[in-house]
Amino acid sequence: MLTTTKWTRSGNRNRTIEMLAWVGVLTLYGCGSTPVDPSSEESVSLVNVSPDNADMTVGDTVRLTASAFSETGAEIRGRSVLWSSSDQAAATITNGGLVTAHAKGRVVIEASVGGVSGFSEVRVGEPPAPTPSRVTVTPGSMTLDPGAEAQLQAQVLMSDGIPMDGVEVSWTSSNGNVVQVTGDGAIRAIDSGSAWIRAWSGALYGEAAIVVRPRPVAYVFVSPAIVTLVVGEQTRARAHTYSAGGGELHGRPVRWSVEDPRIATVDGEGNVLGISKGRTRIQAESEGKIGRADVEVRQWPPEGPQMVFDLRWQPYELRPVVGDTTWIDPSGRPRTSELILAQGELLLDLQTGTYTQRFDLVVMATNEPAVREDRGLAGYLWTEGSFWFTSSVIAGHRFTGNPNGRGDLFVAQTVGTADLRTYQYAIR
Question: How many CB atoms lie within 10 A of CB 325?
Fold first, then answer.
């Protein structure tokens, strides 16, 4: 109830204020339950705590409120509340009634007002087992050179983004020919291309995009190493690019050029055209590396009375044998021959109608080199465009030959009744 000392002053005006104040109090509390003024001497008879029980897990918080009532059931407001916990290791409570769960257990929270207490039972349980929500891989992308190594890291995260400790992941590569990965996330670039490296946790995975640069060109080789052609003839040279490890690199751009375009020209595809008699060189450049080939352009028919030919092998053709009717098959196995023709030279003198031929041989039995010369008569059948040769050294040894458009001479030989054996001489 209100004290009148608060309002004591002389004069009728102040007494009027005192009376109005009492009327105001009666109007404010005239209906319903009547709260007790906290400054009154009304004693607390009951304290209610709400909620009176709560189920929590470790880490949770909940706020409790306490209400004090008099014997008449009127709520007493404004009194201070003293909070306490029966087990602060399991749950604590602040002066404002905020409960925090720390460990599994059963805790009684007490609220005391004016010596009267109310209670709330709090049950603290273990938090649920963490559940992975996603997997991340860092770095998320990388560009490497072939042979380079790097380390990836994976984290398994819960839905709130907090990493989960002690969770193992497995690693896979979408293309092991480009990038390989070990069980701990170490990667090695193998060859040019791209691959996804994934870290798996159950059905969840995170991934990193790995790009491996093309291997740089270390060497360029041009084949054939010697290009021989006659004026007006065209042939194809090819450039082969290789890495430092010796692996051939395909599809690399190549730029062709020629040292002396008056002798020969070369286009962007490596096609070489003979322009005039002479020697020059072509070169193929790829990524700053250069390969070269010699070019010899000859005149056909040759100038002068003599023609000199060098014997050369043709791929996949039967190799001739001197001194026997047997031969070397395409696999390189001799067929009971004793002498194998390794190389040779043929000199034609059209003025005297003679030829001289020199062979470098290999004796199969001893694998020792040997030399044999052959000479005889030669002529040119102008009507047929072919040469003929009759040996004066080997009885019955006769040749016939026909030059092709590039000036080389294809020679067929027969000894006795043996079948013809064909091999090629290139004009020198």
Answer: 15
